[in-house]
Structures are given as C-alpha cells and as structure tokens.
Specification:
- The chain is of the alpha+beta class.
- The protein has a 3-stranded mixed sheet with strand order 1-3-2, with no helix packed on it.
- It has one domain.
- Helix 1 runs antiparallel to helix 2 and helix 2 packs across helix 3.
- The chain has 4 helices and 3 strands, in the order ααααβββ.
- Helix content is about 45%, strand content about 15%.
Length: about 120
C-alpha cells in the first residue's frame, strides 16, 4: 500500500489527474478486501469501508455509494459522470487549498443540479 500511495503522490505532483483519481478510487477496493473474511470486495463492502473511514473527512457530503459509482464509471467506462444518488456531478479541480463544496446550481435552463466539487492540493482522498 505504501508504494501505491507513493505513486499516487508522484502522479499528483506531475499533474496526472486522471491517473491520480483512478488510483485513489481503487484504495477503498484494496482496503475493504483486506478487511473482508474472504479477501474479496464488492460495491457494498467498498461503500461501507469508505463511509466508516473516509466519509467524515467530507463532512458526510460524499458517501461510499456515490464514490463507488464514480469508481465504476471512471475505471470501466472512462467517464466521471454517472447516475449518482446524491449528486448530478462530482468534479475535481486543482487549487491551492483543499476544500469540498456541495453546490446547487439552478442556472442551466431551470433544472436544479447538485455538484460536489473537491478542490485538491495534496491528495485525492
């Protein structure tokens, strides 16, 4: 795991953001599999692990079920938009501070959209 985290940090430093996000998205897979009695993981185990150990960092704005959908869409379909339970979009943007915004937009033809925006300085998760 240390090598994976090291490579993730190198990818971030080199502005390889898609690689960084995809690498970060597999960490809950690995950790939930390590805690599993059969050494395997699935969407439920992934979500539960994230909710238990990481979600609080996002003040409950990002749940494991949404992150798992993002993981599947990104790793298997090469896209970041999906049918999330709590958001229309999850956006990542580089910045000088690490802040999470839970935004609601109504300036798109009258359709209300919710987006979680993660400003990233150091790490993805």
């Amino acid at each position: 795991m240390d090598e994976l985290i090291n490579e993730l940090n190198i990818a971030i430093k080199n502005k390889m953001y898609i690689t960084s996000i995809n690498t970060a998205l597999i960490i809950p897979d690995i950790c939930s599999a390590l805690q599993s009695s059969n050494g395997r993981t699935n969407g439920s185990k992934y979500s539960n692990w994230f909710n238990e150990f990481i979600s609080e960092k996002y003040k409950g704005n990002l749940l494991g079920s949404d992150l798992y959908k993002l993981r599947c869409a990104s790793l298997h379909q090469g896209k970041f938009n999906y049918d999330f339970e709590h958001f229309d979009k999850i956006l990542f943007q580089p910045t000088t501070n690490s802040i999470v915004h839970n935004c609601v937009s109504q300036n798109n033809g009258g359709i209300e959209e919710k987006a979680l925006i993660k400003n990233e300085r150091k790490s993805i998760l």
